[in-house]
Design a protein that fits this description.
mainly alpha, two-stranded antiparallel sheet, 12 helices
C-alpha cells in the first residue's frame, strides 16, 4: 500500500528526467549544425508513428467513437499550430541561442502566464481579500521578474570559467549577450504559446474528448505544418540530412519521450490531478542545470541562478494558491452532496412516516 502511494511520485520524477534528456540532447544536436525546424518535423513524425497504433487499437471494438467533423479538425489544426508547430520551433531556436538551463527555467513560466491569460478571460477568479489570491498574484510577478532577470542580467560566471585576455572576454560577452537575449525572447514566446494551448485545449476536448486520438492527430498535423514551414524558410534539401548517428538518436528519443510522457502524465493526472503533475516542473530545471554544467560545460551565471530561483519560488507560490482553491472547491462540493443526501433522507423518512400507521398492529 505504501509503494502504491509513491508510484505517481516515481513516475513524475522519471518524466522530468526524460524532459531533461530531451533538452540536453536536443541542444547538443542543434550545436552540430542541425536545423531546429527539421528536428521538430522528425520529432513529431516519430511521436505520431509511436502513438497512432495505440490510438487506433484503443478505438477499435468500442461502441463510443467520436466522429471527426470539420469543426473538430479546424480546432485541432489550430491547436497544433499554436501548441506544437510555433511553440516547438521557437523553443528549439531559443534553446540553440541561449542555453539548456535557460530553456528549462523559462518553461516554468507556463503556469504563471496561464493564470494571467485565464484571469483576463475571466476563467480565473481573484479576491484581493484572500491570501490565496495574493499568493497567485505575487507568484506571477516573481516568475516574470525572474525571467526578465535571466534574460537581461547574466552577472559574473560561477562555473566553467575561462581565462582569456581582457579584450577577448569583453568581445565574447557582447556577442553572447546578444544571442542570449534573442534566445530568451524565443523561449518566452514558447511559454506564451504553451499557455495559450492549455487554455484552448479545454474547448477542443469538449468537441473531441478522445485524448489519445487527439494527440495522434496533433502530432500528424504539426509534422505537416512544420514541414511546410521548413520548406519555406530553408528550401535547401541538404538541411534534411542527418549528418551523425547522434542526430538520429536525438530525433527518435525526442519522439519517444513525447509518447511516453503523454501516457505517464495522463496516468498521474487521473490519480492525483493536473496540479500534482505541474508541481514537478522545477525539478527539470535543477536536473538540466546540474547535468549541463557537469557534462556539457555550460557556463553558469549569477544572474541566471538568481532568476531561476525566483521563477521556481514564484511558481510554487502560484501552485500553492491553486491547491488551496482546489481544496476549497472540493469542500464545497462535499458539503453540497451531504446537504442533498440529508434532504433526500428527510424526504424519504417523511414519506414513510405518512404512509405507515402510527400504531403497529398486533
Amino acid at each position: 500500500m505504501g509503494l502504491e502511494n509513491y508510484k505517481p511520485i516515481i513516475v513524475m520524477v522519471g518524466c522530468q528526467f526524460i524532459y531533461a534528456g530531451v533538452t540536453l540532447s536536443g541542444r547538443e544536436a542543434l550545436l552540430q549544425d542541425f536545423s531546429s525546424r527539421v528536428f521538430v518535423v522528425y520529432r513529431q513524425t516519430t511521436a505520431f508513428l509511436l502513438i497512432a497504433p495505440f490510438a487506433y487499437f484503443s478505438r477499435r471494438g468500442t461502441k463510443r467513437c467520436e466522429a471527426m467533423n470539420w469543426k473538430s479538425f479546424c480546432l485541432i489544426a489550430l491547436l497544433s499550430l499554436i501548441g506544437v508547430t510555433i511553440n516547438q520551433n521557437v523553443y528549439f531556436e531559443g534553446l540553440y541561442l541561449a542555453s539548456s538551463s535557460a530553456a528549462s527555467a523559462l518553461s516554468n513560466l507556463v503556469p504563471a502566464i496561464t493564470f494571467t491569460i485565464a484571469y483576463f478571460l475571466r476563467l480565473e477568479k481573484v479576491n484581493l481579500e484572500n491570501v490565496r489570491s495574493w499568493a497567485k498574484i505575487m507568484g506571477t510577478v516573481l516568475c516574470v521578474s525572474g525571467a526578465v532577470l535571466m534574460a537581461l542580467l547574466k552577472g559574473p560566471k560561477l562555473l566553467n570559467l575561462e581565462f582569456l585576455p581582457t579584450n577577448s572576454i569583453f568581445l565574447q560577452m557582447v556577442a553572447q549577450h546578444d544571442t542570449w537575449i534573442i534566445g530568451c525572447l524565443f523561449l518566452l514566446a514558447s511559454a506564451f504559446c504553451w499557455s495559450l494551448w492549455l487554455i484552448l485545449q479545454v474547448h477542443v476536448t469538449a468537441c473531441y474528448p478522445d485524448h489519445l486520438s487527439l494527440t495522434a492527430w496533433m502530432c500528424l498535423i504539426a509534422a505537416v505544418q512544420s514541414a511546410i514551414l521548413t520548406f519555406i524558410i530553408e528550401p535547401d534539401l541538404d538541411t534534411w540530412k542527418l549528418t551523425s548517428p547522434f542526430q538520429l538518436y536525438c530525433c527518435f528519443y525526442a519522439g519517444l519521450a513525447s509518447a511516453v510522457t503523454f501516457f505517464a502524465q495522463a496516468w498521474c493526472i487521473a490519480r492525483r490531478g493536473p496540479l500534482f503533475s505541474a508541481m514537478f516542473n522545477p525539478l527539470c530545471t535543477v536536473i538540466v542545470t546540474i547535468f549541463a554544467c557537469i557534462f556539457m560545460h555550460e557556463e553558469l551565471y549569477a544572474g541566471s541562478l538568481s532568476g531561476g530561483l525566483a521563477v521556481i519560488i514564484g511558481l510554487y507560490m502560484v501552485l500553492w494558491g491553486k491547491a488551496k482553491d482546489h481544496e476549497e472547491m472540493k469542500e464545497e462540493e462535499t458539503m453540497k452532496q451531504q446537504n442533498n443526501i440529508n434532504g433526500e433522507n428527510e424526504n424519504a423518512s417523511t414519506t414513510v412516516d405518512l404512509e405507515q400507521p402510527l400504531l403497529s398492529e398486533k
